[in-house]
Write a structure and sequence with these properties.
This is TAFA chemokine like family member 5a. One of its GO terms (cellular component) is extracellular space. InterPro entries: Chemokine-like_TAFA (IPR020350), TAFA-5 (IPR040329). GO terms for molecular function: G protein-coupled receptor binding; receptor ligand activity. It holds the Pfam family TAFA. By secondary structure, the protein is of the alpha+beta class. The strands form 3 sheets. A 3-stranded antiparallel beta sheet has the order 5-6-7, with no helix packed on it. A hairpin with a 2-residue loop joins strand 1 and strand 2. The chain is globular, with a radius of gyration of 22 Å. The N and C termini lie far apart (67 Å).
Length: 125
């Protein structure tokens, strides 16, 4: 008798979880992002100059309240809006783990320096 109750409870919980997932998937229509996530919608690379590549990317983000689109570990991400407002770019951890982050002198962006000395410069628009 006790085993039958447990089985019914598990079946009910399974159906409930399935219905929640179904409702959630209906609310997030095609092309709509979940809150707090980003996706790259355009990536353009220009290698016309020797030893220099200019890359531009456009990301689409659905950030939560108090957040804004930014960069974390070289990927688009939602970051605290105060980081962008104060232009303290390195606080959003934009570089990879083995790279060092430095602010540009005019605070228009940051550089990520790799262990071998290669420098990647990013400017914010």
């Amino acid at each position: 008798m006790q085993l039958l109750r447990v089985a019914w409870a598990l079946a009910g919980a399974t159906i409930c979880c399935f219905l929640i997932l179904l409702i959630h998937s209906r609310l997030l229509k095609e092309g709509q992002l979940a809150a707090g996530t980003c996706e790259i919608v355009m990536l353009d690379r220009d290698s016309s100059q020797p030893r220099r590549t200019i890359a531009r990317q456009t990301a689409r983000c659905a950030c939560k309240k108090g957040q804004i689109a930014g960069t974390t570990r070289a990927m688009p991400a939602c970051v605290d809006a105060s980081i962008v407002r104060t232009k303290q770019w390195c606080e959003m951890v934009p570089c990879l783990d083995d790279e060092g982050c430095d602010l540009l002198i005019n605070k228009s962006g940051w550089t990520c320096t790799q262990p071998g000395g290669r420098v990647k410069t990013t400017t914010a628009l």
